[in-house]
Design brief:
This protein is α/β, with parallel strands linked by helices. It contains 14 helices and ten strands. It has helices at about 15-25, 40-50, 55-70, 90-95, 95-105, 125-130, 140-160, 165-170, 195-200, 210-215, 225-235, 245-260, 275-285, 305-325; strands spanning about 5-10, 30-35, 75, 80, 110, 115, 190-195, 215-220, 265-270, 295-300. α1 (about 15-25) packs antiparallel against α7 (about 140-160), α6 (about 125-130) crosses α7 and α12 packs parallel to α13 (about 275-285). The longest helix has 22 residues, at about 305-325. It binds iron/sulfur cluster. The site of iron/sulfur cluster (SF4) has 13 residues, from α3, α4 and α13.
Length: about 325
């Protein structure tokens, strides 16, 4: 029998959950096809088919869906509602299957399981079981595939997180050469924060992380901050944040401010309600830590690489001049 081909768009929440879905569907014998990393063609496809007021990551998601449409039997577009107590996904992600259906025509059948752990039908297990029934009618096989994939997903996820303090010490770079000949020899620790579909999509963020690394920057991200630390940091807020994805960004920002990294860059999307509020919150917090340089890069489809390069260079230049002054070296200009 021919394998069922299931397409997964390489965008939005799949930066987090792709390994789980891939493991589960492959174990059941489906062929999983992941769309290509974002490129100009995908971006253009998304921009042409989406309403202009939609945020850039959703437009990109549309582009990925369209790029898969002729290669697969099904496209997986879960409706992500709630994965933890008291917090939700943003309205665009909750309505994503409906938005895709109303904006894009001639698509393969969409698989739209609901992940809403408040409801019995929306637990991870029940949602994946529903999708599994399309591939096989053997429920014990589906159940086994779920347990195995879930275990692997959890183990891999936890393996990426070390014991918090150890992690920070092993991640941070402080060994400044006694007499750096050039400013680039002065190591800098910068936290790059934002939703992981912005921080990890190098086409959208214009390869920001690699550019920083080439400039001798030690890049820190929200993913390496232990969930227990994020939780502790969030207790500093008067009111809990009710967006799951932003909890991680704010908790990590507060942690890195407290650890006095050299700088924080917050990546946000134009047209994103969450980012506009969370950006203000982080900016407000930055005023309590004048030693930590802070900036925000806002992305939309009109962002230009030259502008981003100039801003990175200016930000680093400012931090390195400050460090030169701190270690008693004359400025290099
Ligand atoms: S959180 Fe913001 S950027 Fe992400 S999908 Fe929702 S509106 Fe778009």
């Amino acid at each position: 029998m021919q394998k069922k081909k299931i397409g997964i768009p390489y965008a939005l929440y799949f930066y987090e959950y792709y390994p789980l879905w891939k493991e589960f569907l492959t174990r059941l014998g489906a062929e999983v096809i992941l769309s290509q990393p974002t490129n100009k063609k995908i971006l253009d496809l998304g921009i042409r088919s989406a309403l202009s007021e939609v945020c850039l990551p959703v437009k990109i998601f549309y582009g990925h869906v369209l790029s898969l449409s002729e290669q697969v039997d099904y496209i997986l577009i879960p409706r992500m509602v709630c994965i933890e107590r008291g917090a939700f996904f943003c309205p665009k992600m909750i309505g994503l299957p409906d938005m895709v259906r109303s904006s894009l025509q001639n698509l393969p059948t969409q698989l739209t399981p609901i992940i809403d752990v408040r409801q019995s039908y929306g637990t991870w297990k029940n949602s994946l079981m529903e999708v599994g029934k399309l591939i096989t009618d053997n429920s014990s096989e589906i159940s086994r595939a779920f347990s195995d994939s879930w275990k692997i997903f959890q183990q891999n996820y936890l393996a990426n997180i070390l014991e918090p303090n150890l992690l920070f010490k092993s991640s941070i770079q402080n060994n400044i050469p006694k007499k750096p000949r050039k400013d680039i020899e002065i190591p800098v620790n910068i936290a790059v924060l934002g939703h992981n579909y912005l921080t990890n999509d190098s086409y959208v963020n214009m390869d920001l992380i690699n550019k920083l690394k080439k400039m001798n920057v030690n890049v820190l991200t929200p993913e390496i901050v232990h969930p227990a630390i994020i939780k502790k940091q969030l207790k500093k807020l008067y009111k809990p944040i009710f967006w799951s994805l932003s909890r991680k960004v704010v908790g990590a920002a507060f942690y890195y401010f407290e650890k006095k990294v050299d700088g924080i860059i917050h990546l946000t999307s134009f047209e994103c309600g969450e980012d506009s509020m969370v950006g203000e919150l982080i900016h407000h917090q930055s005023q309590k830590y004048p030693d930590v340089s802070y900036t925000e890069f806002v992305f939309d489809e009109h962002s230009g690489e030259a502008g981003i390069n100039t801003r990175i260079e200016a930000f680093l230049d400012m931090i390195r001049r400050k460090k030169r002054y701190e270690i008693g070296l004359t400025p290099s200009w």
